[in-house]
Amino acid sequence: MPIGKAEVKRPGRDITVATFSFCVLQALEAAAELSKQYGIEVEVVDLRSIVPLDMETVLDSVARTGRLLAVHESHAMNGIGAELVARMYEEAPELLKAPARRLGAPPVSIPVSMTLEEEMLPRKRQIKAMILEMLGVSAAAQGVRQWRQNCDFLRICQA
Fold it and tell me: What does the pLDDT read at residue 140?
């Protein structure tokens, strides 16, 4: 595996999901389900490394799809997703048909409980809901709102 070279794991036409590590598997599962259920074709880009970051592959993908969702398990604020979105707007904002988004953990400690961890970290369900929301499929908005409310609850509990 070459360091610094991302790989398109699944070609698509509707949206680019840029991610790495365990989230690649979650994104691929979400992409397969979205294709079967809605005919949405998600391009999944495995970053493979974040230093160096292969923005060329990400930008090439976004040129095909017009949309970017950056997914990672670290905190959404100041995480690699924030960096990807910032670089997207700095280097090629004209490629976007819609605002680039990021999906990461809320700004709280990662819980030890597997049940709470599954609710907090981006998984297939949250990835699907965010993609549907970004593409304007209305039923997804409720799922994203519920996930955000759960994350707010966890933040309050840890305060």
Answer: 52
28-56 pLDDT, tens digit per residue, is: 999 999 999 999 999 999 999 999 999 99
Q: In what order do the strands lie in the sheet with 101-105?
A: 7-10, 42-46, 15-19, 68-75, 101-105
Conformation bin of residue 31: beta by default, left when phi > 0, alpha when psi is -120 to 50: alpha
CA triplet 51, 57, 62: central angle to 5 degrees? Answer: 120
Whether the link from the prior residue into 52 is cis, omega within 30° of 0, is yes
State the DSSP string of 52-102: S--HHHHHHHHHHHS-EEEEEEEESTTSHHHHHHHHHHHH-GGG-SS--EE
The pTM of this model reads 0.86
Structure tokens at 27: 């994104």
- On whether the CB atoms of residues 129 and 98 are closer than 8 A, the answer is no
